[in-house]
Design goal:
The complex is a heterodimer of chains A (about 240) and B (about 450).
Chain A lengths: L1 E10 L9 E9 L3 E5 L6 H8 L7 E6 L2 E2 L5 H11 E4 L11 H5 L1 H4 L11 H11 L15 H13 L5 E5 L7 H18 L2 E6 L10 E4 H4 L20
Helix pairs in contact in A: 6-7
Chain B lengths: L1 H13 L1 H33 L7 E5 L3 H9 L9 E2 H9 L3 E13 L2 E6 L2 H5 L1 E2 L3 E2 L2 E4 L7 E4 L1 H6 L7 E2 L2 E2 L9 E2 L5 E7 L9 E5 H9 L8 H6 L17 E5 L2 E7 L1 E6 L5 H9 L6 E4 L1 H44 L1 H9 L4 H42 L10 H32 L6
Parallel strand pairs in B: 4-13, 8-12
Antiparallel strand pairs in B: 1-16, 1-17, 2-15, 3-4, 3-16, 5-6, 7-12, 8-13, 9-12, 10-11, 14-15
Classes of the chains: A alpha/beta (about 240), B alpha+beta (about 450).
Chain lengths: ~240, ~450
């Protein structure tokens, strides 16, 4: 069973705007680590929103772990996202008024179940934070963490309860080279242990070799022109 | 649901400085609104409580309000007097239980000098039938004795046994035109605080009032004139410069022949209207008898424009407070977009997000209303003695009235709508942006 399967997915934000995505087919196998790349504004984040069930496609079907999310009710889709999809963003992953532990266990408050072998979410959070090398941070405030530490805490939150798929949206772009390598290593190790697939999105193709498979969004999306205007238009095309 | 409330409270706590500031701004507007409302109520009570258990106020024929103002509030002065015959006529009516004459027109350092009889203290009540109480001493018994209100005692530093010199007429700075050092009065009684014009009054006998004027000599038409012409029945033509009754002398004592007016109590309140008609249509003096309650209502109707203005201003302040809430939540909504995205990503649905945002707004409104009302009541409680003394306004701290609850409910409703509308901006952004990283 595929962790993720998209078939004939078309999406536009409103009837007046042009199509952003048109993906005839895309899949991620169970346990597979996929690297998805494309320039800014090519619709990567929109695609992740569709997979997470935050938007519904105008047509086509999105199946996550064998369940069609477009068929679900709103409430069921939100619960399904809480249970089976772990998100890691580029920055500002954490809720600033919650402690490190409460941030990690946050998905469990919305329906994610703790992995087998742990009695409580706090116990699993502590375990994951240790595995990710930030165990000593558990009681800290978010504002006391470095960006690298924040990303690891975010990874722990994505991994808690062994969701079927981890969706990472440029999680390393704010990190330096060394922190980036370390982050990928611990993320991969834990995802493997939990049996979660990884869909990793970036515009930086340098990391692609570390994944099982790499995929250009332009190769699966038949709408190829960037449709959304980035707030900051880079003078030289892309950030490196 | 519990999770959402925990999140909302943690979020508010995290932003405690803006949270507290928002609560303060709401509470200040609420406190002002409640305060203005209470002051309005208290003013109305103070006016209405200035006279009680008097069924009719009778005076020369002027206007209802001017008779009320000068007889009860000592504002303005009577243009002419009524004769003792009118008093006797009224007292002779079978429905009448008591009559108490009064003469006004003189001042003592801003206080009014009231010439009356000892029965005044027995019959004239204030605030729902409360009797005047002597904090010290007792009623006057002779023409050289005076009973003073609490305010007079305090401001003029007068104690029992002190001598005071009353003046003739009223002037702005409190002293009369002429002082009469020859006839000092001895303070025999000091009244307790009533929160009514009584506090700012000096009470003497009618004869005592006459003594003030006796010494003026030939330039006054009063005492001297009248004891030659004691049958003088036409008070309209009396005293050109001021009026405080006229007198004749009997065995060296001055007996009033005319007074400014009198208070009247009926045996049965139901007879008040009949008595009013009888007195108003008497063919002796041109009398005006008024029912204090009705006159007070008429006075209040004239003052209602100020009430309305006060209410309007306080209402505007509340609107400003609510706008402040709206603005602060609206500005915050932009800053909270990332937080909303994270919550969405970990599985929070639209209902959860909205409940959380609206819950925070409602917490702010409830906090503001609670603090504001608390501060106002607490403040009133603490300041009450001072306000009562300073302004002669009594603040009965009544329990929370139904109108208070209504008002709180309306404020809560308006505040919640403002808060929820502002939060809706956050909510809509959270839904529209999905996972987009905008910062």
């Amino acid at each position: 069973m595929d962790a993720l399967l998209l078939k004939g997915v078309e999406f536009r934000y409103s009837a007046k705007t042009p199509r952003v995505l048109s993906i005839p087919v895309m899949s991620v196998a169970a346990g597979e680590k996929v690297f998805l790349f494309g320039p800014s504004g090519s619709g990567k984040t929109t695609l992740l929103g569709l997979i997470g069930g935050l938007f519904l496609p105008n047509s086509g079907e999105i199946t996550v772990l064998g369940q069609s999310i477009s068929q679900m009710s709103h409430g069921a889709r939100d619960r399904f996202r809480a249970q089976e999809i772990g998100f890691i963003f580029q920055v500002f992953n954490l809720v600033s008024y919650l402690s490190v532990q409460d941030n990690v266990t946050l998905p469990c408050k919305f329906g994610r179940r703790v992995s087998a072998g742990f009695a409580t979410a706090a116990e699993e959070a502590q375990f994951l934070l240790e595995k990710l090398g930030v165990g000593e941070l558990v009681g800290k405030n978010i504002s006391d963490l470095s960006i690298g530490q924040q990303q690891r805490v975010a990874a722990a939150r994505a991994l808690i309860g062994s969701p079927g798929i981890i969706i990472a949206d440029e999680p390393t772009s704010a990190l330096d080279e060394e922190a980036r390598a370390g982050f990928l290593n611990v993320l991969f190790a834990q995802a493997k242990r939990e049996g979660s697939s990884i869909l990793f999105v970036s515009h930086d193709r340098g990391m692609a070799p570390q994944f099982d498979r790499s995929l250009a969004l332009s190769s699966i999306n038949t709408v190829n022109t960037p449709q959304t205007t980035p707030l900051i238009t880079p003078l030289t095309g892309e950030f490196k | 649901m519990k999770q959402i409330m925990i999140l909302a409270i943690r979020s508010l706590w995290h932003r405690r400085i803006p949270t507290v500031l928002t609560i303060i701004s709401i509470s200040m507007s609420v406190a002002l609104f409640v305060g203005v409302d209470k002051i309005r109520e208290a003013t109305r009570d103070a006016f209405g409580g200035a006279i009680s258990k008097v069924d009719l106020i009778v005076g020369p024929r002027t206007g209802t309000i001017s008779l009320l103002l000068f007889s009860v509030f000592h504002v303005g002065s009577p243009t002419h007097n009524i004769t003792l015959k009118a008093l006797e006529f009224a007292a002779a009516q079978p429905e009448v239980a008591w009559v108490v004459p009064f003469s006004l027109g003189d001042g003592f350092h801003g206080a009014s000098v009231v010439g009356t009889t000892p029965e005044f203290f027995e019959h004239y009540k204030y605030r729902d039938g409360t009797s005047m109480v002597y904090s010290l001493g007792h009623v006057f018994s002779g023409d050289s004795e005076a009973v003073i209100g609490s305010d007079v005692a305090e401001k003029q530093h007068l104690a029992l046994g002190d001598k005071m010199v009353l003046s003739h007429g009223h002037t702005e700075d409190g002293d009369g035109f002429e002082k009469h050092e020859d006839h000092p009065f001895t303070v025999t009684g000091v009244l307790a605080v009533t929160g009514t014009p009584i506090d700012k009054s000096v009470f003497v006998t009618l004869g005592g009032l006459g003594e003030i004027h006796r010494e003026i000599g030939a330039d006054t038409p009063h005492a001297d004139d009248h004891h030659e012409d004691s049958g003088h029945d036409d008070p309209q033509h009396e005293g050109e410069h001021h009026e405080q009754g006229s007198f004749r002398e009997e065995n060296g004592k001055l007996i009033a022949t005319s007074v400014s007016g009198f208070f009247l109590g009926a045996k049965n309140r139901m007879d008040s209207l009949n008595l009013q008609r009888t007195l108003n249509t008497w063919d002796g003096d041109a009398l005006l008898a008024i029912l204090p309650g009705m006159a007070m209502g008429e006075l209040w109707k004239n003052l209602s424009i100020f009430e309305t203005a006060m209410s309007l201003i306080s209402f505007c302040v509340v609107v400003a407070g609510m706008l402040g809430l709206f603005v602060s939540l609206y500005i915050l909504s932009g800053q909270r977009q990332r937080e909303m995205t994270v919550l969405r990503a970990v599985g929070a649905g639209p209902v959860t997000i909205f409940t959380m945002l609206a819950g925070e707004a409602v917490c702010l409104v409830i906090g503001g209303i609670g603090v504001g009302t608390g501060v106002m009541y607490g403040g009133l409680y603490l300041l009450r003695p001072w306000i009562e003394k300073k302004f002669s306004i009594s603040f009965p701290i009544s329990g929370v009235s139904r109108s208070d609850i209504m008002f709180a409910a309306i404020l809560l409703g308006v505040g919640c709508v403002a808060g929820v509308l502002a939060s809706f901006n956050s909510y809509r952004a959270a839904m529209r942006e999905g996972l987009a990283t905008r910062f």
